[in-house]
Amino acid sequence: MGKKIQNIEYQSHIISTTILVFTSKHKDETKRHIFCYLYMAMKKYISLLPLLLLFLITGCSSDDSTTQAPLAARNILNVPYGPDPQQSMDVYLPEGRDENTKVIVLVHGGAWTSGSKADVAPLVPVLQQRFPNHAVVNINYRLATETSPALPKQTDDIEAVLDYLETSDYEVSDDYAFIGFSAGAHLSMLYGYAHDTDHDVKAIVNVVGPADFTDPDYLSHDLYPIAALYLTGTSAPTMEQIEAISPASHITGESAPTLTFYGGQDPLVPASQGPRLKAKLDEAGVYNEFNFYPDGGHADWDATTFAEVYNKVEAFLQARF
Length: 321
Hints:
By secondary structure, the chain is an alpha/beta fold. The chain has helices at residues 2-24, 29-60, 123-130, 153-167, 183-195, 216-219, 224-232, 239-244, 273-284, 303-320, and strands spanning 74-80, 88-93, 103-107, 135-139, 176-181, 201-207, 258-263, 288-293.
């Protein structure tokens, strides 16, 4: 900076000397006035150049010494994402997150009529340990009653959750992986396959979720009429209604990769659900992994089995999410 100013001052000296020499050789008074005017004007202009140069240098330079500190981790509980008291969620944000931070969404079960995010809260620290750079969101949704069926309000609630996240100041991406259990797995698949028009859902983990209500083993199940009532508002839905609430009916080649777990002794979800879902995913060319525990019930598995499930979930999400 000092050398540049010295160069400008030196150039000013040369110019002023040249003008004075030139005017001394011309006795014509008119020319002397002209050159004196030019000399004074140029001297004034050049004298301002150091200030102009200083302004440009300081104005255009960036202060690399001041970098933004990484965002701190935050745990925000019972965040309302809608006006209903049941529309709440717990948000766990990792340290150092940014707009590329992916989000894992937990969706609890309870036959669409009961349950809460507290049921799957013990899974949060497991996910934080295995995915320390991901955000985790554990949601509640409006529960079904005999006069207020699960659909479409529960998939609407999932949409509302994602809308809230995308307009928040959480500094996370709009890339989501769903982990759902039982009814929550059904909702995760139904939203991902049928309602995610932007394809923001990049992966789905389905743990004993109903996938295809057109399955004869479901249609003849003792609990089918009550399940249909809470899902659709009628205990005798039409086939069109049944297909509309069946995730398998909405699978396309653009559906999210899916990891599934089913038990052979499940009293609530027929063992045929897993193979039927896999066949639909395979037919559409969607990557999927099907895990079947012949002696397993409705996700009431032992610690060894759950350890295996956690490891497979981790490997799947690391590879596909």
